[in-house]
Amino acid sequence: MFLYIYAAIVGMTVNLGHMWSIAETFNGLMTILNLIAVFLLSVVVIKLVKEYFNG
After folding, report:
1. Which residues contact 29 (CB under 8 A, 6 or more apart)?
2. Cα gap 11→13, rounded to integer Å
3. What is the DSSP letter of 1?
4. Residues 19 and 11: beta-carbon distance below 8 Å
5. Residue 23, exposed/middle/buried by CB under 10 A (0-12, 13-18, 19+)?
6. Alpha-carbon torsion 39, 44, 47, 50, what sign?
7. Residues near 11 by Cβ (< 8 Å), separated by ≥ 6?
8. What is the 3-state secondary structure (H, E, C) of 5-35?
9. Is residue 41 helix, strand or coil?
10. Distance, CA of 37 to CA of 11 (rounded, Å)
11. Is 55 helix (H, G, I), strand (E, B) or coil?
12. How confident is the model over 20-50, as pLDDT tens digits?
């Protein structure tokens, strides 16, 4: 709960440009993690697609 209160206080006091930069950074980090997960799961997807189309 204190983390949420701290985040609200920081959000109210920090420059808006800095907040956008922080938000974009975290969005980029989430994108990188998702791309890694998609890459790791692509082997499974290829296997399942081959099984589906081969009967």
Report:
1. none
2. 6
3. -
4. yes
5. exposed
6. negative
7. 19
8. HHHHHHHHHCCHHHHHHHHHHHHHHHHHHHH
9. helix
10. 31
11. coil
12. 998 999 999 999 999 999 999 999 999 999 9
pLDDT in tens, 3-17: 999 988 988 898 989
**Any idea how long the chain is?**
55
Q: How far is residue 55 from each of residues 27, 33, 37, 44, measured CA to CA in Å? A: 40, 33, 27, 17
pTM of the model: 0.56
Residues 6 or more apart from 20 whose CB is under 8 A from it? none
Q: Which two tokens stand for residue 9?
A: 């206080």
The one-letter amino acid at 10 = V
